[in-house]
Amino acid sequence: MSRKKDVDKPSIIEFEKVLVFLIALAGLWIIWPFSTPLVLAAVTAYTFYPLVNYIQRYLKSYNLSILIVIILIFGPIGWAISGFAGGVNTIIMTIYQFAADINTFLLKLNTYVSSLDLEIPGSQSVISTLQSVVSDFVEQVQVSLTSWIKNIPNIIIDFFVYLFATYYFLRDGKRLRELVLKWSRKFEKEERRVIESIVTGLDNSFRVLFVSYIGISTIVGILSAIIYYFVGVPYAGLMAVITWIFAFLPILNTPMIYGGIAAYLFYVGEIQQAIILLILGVVFLSLIPDLLLRPVLCGKAGNVHPLTVILGFFGGPVVFGIKGFLIGPLLLVIVETVVKEYMKS
C-alpha cells in the first residue's frame, strides 16, 4: 500500500508542476501586449526607488512619497506631450505646404528648362524623379500619421499601464524580490543558484536599461538643448524636452525630431542653420550616444560585455519587433549573468 503511495506521489508532483507552468504561461500570454510599458515601469521604479526612500525620511509616508515621485516623473512628460500635441496640426500643414512648394518649384523649373530649348541629357528624367520622390514622401507621411492616429487608443492604454505599473512597482517591487529569493531557499543548492543568478541578472538588466533609456536620453536631452540654442531653433527648450522623450522611448528616435526641425529650417530659408543642425544632430545626438556611450556605459553598469549590450539592442527588435528594444538587452544580460555564475564553479 505504501509502495503505491510512493509511486503516485511523484506523478502528482509532476502534474502540479505542469499545471503551474501552464497557468504561468497563460498569464504571460495575457500580459505580453503590455510587456513594453511594464518593463519601462520596472526600470523607472528601480531608478527612482532611492528617491522615494529619501522623501519618506521627511514625510514619514511611503505612499505620499511615491505619489510625489510619480508627479515628478510624469509631470514633465505630460507637459511635453501636450505642447507637442498642440503643434501637430501646424507640423502637418507645414509638411504638406513644404511638399506643395517643392512641386511648384519643380514644375516651374521644368517649364523653364523646356523654354530654353536646350538639350540637357536627363534633365526631364531628374525633375520627374524628384516630383515622384516628393509625392511618395507626402503619401508616406499621410499613411504614417493615419496609422499613428488610429493607434492613439493603444498608446493611451500603454501610457496608463506604464503609470500605474510604475506606482505599484515602487510600492511592492522590493517585497516581490524578497519573496522570490525566499521562495528559492526551498530548492537544492544548484536550483537555488539558478534562481538567484536570474534575480541578479534582472538587477543588472535594470541598470543597463536605466543607463540606456534614462541616462543616455538625459544626456541627449541636455546636448539637444545646447545645440538647439546654439543653432537658434524656435522653442528650443520645448524641442529639447521632446527630443529627450523620443530618445527615452524605444519606439521612437531622435532623428525624427532634429531631422524634422532641420527640414523646417530649410523650408523657411535658414539653409545654413539646417545644415549645421543636421551635422551636430547626427554626430552628437545619434552616433556618439548610440555607438559609443550606450554600449560602454551600459556594459559597466550591468557588469556585462559591451557586445552583449549591442547585440541586445540590435538583435532584440529583429526577434521581438518593437518590444525587442527592451526585451532583447534584458534577456541577453540575464543570460550572460547566469552563464558567468556557472563558469565560476
Q: Can you count the beta strands?
A: 0
Biggest β-sheet description: none
Residue share in β-strands:
under 5%
Globular, elongated, flat, extended or rod-shaped: what is the shape? elongated
User: Regions with pLDDT < 50 over 5+ consecutive residues?
Assistant: none
Q: What is the helical fraction, as a range of percent?
A: over 70%
Descriptive account of the structure:
The protein is an all-alpha fold and 345 residues long. It folds into two domains: 35-172, no CATH class; 187-345. 89% of the residues lie in helices and 0% in strands. It is elongated, with a radius of gyration of 26 Å.
Tag the structure with descriptive keywords.
single chain, 345 residues, mainly alpha, 2 domains
Which helices and strands occur, and which strands form pairs?
Blueprint (H helix, E strand, L loop, with lengths): L1 H30 L3 H25 L2 H25 L1 H29 L6 H28 L1 H33 L4 H43 L4 H13 L6 H13 L3 H32 L3 H15 L3 H20 L2
Helix pairs in contact: 2-3, 2-6, 2-7, 3-6, 3-8, 4-5, 6-7, 7-8, 7-10, 7-12, 9-10, 10-11, 11-12
